[in-house]
Write a structure and sequence with these properties.
Length: 131
DNA sequence: GCCTTGACGGCAA
DNA sequence: GTTGCCGCCAAGG
């Protein structure tokens, strides 16, 4: 059990809110829960959630869009198939096109729990990647 | 009790 | 533009 169950709960909630046909990144989730540095911890929580909760963890990729956690599904091809079934465009065999399918937790009418300065920075990044 | 590894991210060379 | 290194938190050996 994680030392911060609340953190894991936040992660689960955010992942559960990821719309169909969209994906998000570990960093965005970490930022959404108020801990940008917890990107790794997010992945750890998801791995544990993979066998506990019925969350669409296949919609979570790293900042490059690479299916870094594909092997945890048995094989990256499994994760790729799930994403393709949702109409998620792929930039490569095991890399999604974040330019088209990236979804941000706070883009759903919510805002990150991070300080104003960091929020502004994140917003700038979002606009830049939102194309 | 210390060291290594891990579904990551950002910055520097 | 690409490749590499460091940082952060937690768990397992």
């Amino acid at each position: 059990m994680p030392a911060s169950p609340d953190f894991a709960a936040r992660v689960y909630e955010v992942v559960a809110r990821v719309p169909f046909g969209r994906v998000t990144t570990y960093g965005r989730i970490a930022a959404a829960v108020g801990d940008r540095r917890g990107a790794r911890m997010v992945g750890w929580a998801l791995m544990h959630a993979l066998s506990e909760r019925d969350l669409p963890c296949h919609r979570v990729v790293n900042r490059t869009g690479l299916l870094s956690g594909g092997w945890h599904f048995g094989h990256p091809d499994v994760m790729r198939g799930l994403l393709l079934a949702e109409g998620v465009p792929f930039k490569a065999a095991y890399q999604v096109d974040l330019e088209q399918c990236l979804w941000e937790p706070w883009a759903d009418g919510e805002r990150p729990l991070a300080p104003a300065d960091e929020v502004d920075d994140l917003h700038g990044i979002a606009l830049s990647e939102d194309r």
